[in-house]
Structure to design on (232 residues):
């Protein structure tokens, strides 16, 4: 069975602080995909990144970076120099090969205060 | 590209009413659509998977007769909440998945529908 764990329920930081959101996953598949989504208060899901299980390269996109480590089954997300607009709920998700159904973690609520 | 439109964005109705939510893929053919449900401050839970032209596959614990799903075309799926009650109030999100050269592509999400039953 597939499972995604986001142990941090809520994180509060002050603007310009760096913050890392943890994601640990479980799967028996050798081919799978990992995702991060942002859900602002308006509710829509904003796609941030997709990673396949064969690509362990870390990725940086502006202030966002992702650290994928198969050895620890983790796919952590770091926001550098956080901003108030980063306040949202962030979901980590997993799908098996063929982009079957997504299994979501419970989400981490990030509050960035000015 | 890969835009999914969900309508309505929000709906408020009386208990006992049936409510229909539409999910459309605007610029691609969605061979598969997924319906998720999200309670306040909780995660998204898959309700059902629908493939165009066939019956939906429901997740364990989801009432088929309560949540009717139709996927009659490659660009439209509908979720009907029949005889809705206050406990059906939730945020419903659809996603659509197409194929490219025979391979499944990632899901694209609609903006969700906030359903409130009085």
């Amino acid at each position: 069975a597939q499972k995604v764990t986001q142990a941090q329920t809520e994180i509060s930081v002050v603007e310009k602080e760096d913050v890392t959101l943890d994601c640990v996953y479980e799967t028996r598949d050798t081919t799978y995909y990992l995702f991060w989504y942002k859900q602002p208060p308006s509710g829509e899901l904003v796609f941030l990144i997709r990673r396949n299980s064969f690509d362990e390269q870390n990725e940086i996109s502006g202030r966002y970076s992702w650290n994928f480590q198969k050895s620890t089954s983790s796919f952590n997300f770091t926001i550098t120099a956080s901003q108030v607009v980063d306040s949202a709920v962030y979901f980590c998700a997993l799908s098996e090969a063929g982009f079957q159904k997504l299994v979501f973690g419970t989400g981490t609520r990030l509050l960035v205060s000015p | 590209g890969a835009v999914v439109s969900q309508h309505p964005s929000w709906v408020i109705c009386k208990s006992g009413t049936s409510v229909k939510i539409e999910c459309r893929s605007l610029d691609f053919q969605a061979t598969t659509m997924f319906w998720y449900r999200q309670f306040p401050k909780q995660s998204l839970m898959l309700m059902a998977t629908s493939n165009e032209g066939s019956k939906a596959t429901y997740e364990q614990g989801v009432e088929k007769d309560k949540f009717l799903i139709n996927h009659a075309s490659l660009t439209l799926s509908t979720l009907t909440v029949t005889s809705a009650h206050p406990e059906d109030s939730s945020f419903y999100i659809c996603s659509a998945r197409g194929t490219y050269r025979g391979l499944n592509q990632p899901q694209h999400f609609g903006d969700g529908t906030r359903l409130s039953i009085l």
User: Anything to note?
Assistant: Chain A touches chain B at residues 33, 35, 37, 42-45, 47, 50, 91, 95, 98-107, 109 (CB under 8 Å). The mean pLDDT of chain A is 95. Chain A is about 0% helix and 55% strand. The two ends of chain A are 41 Å apart (CA to CA).
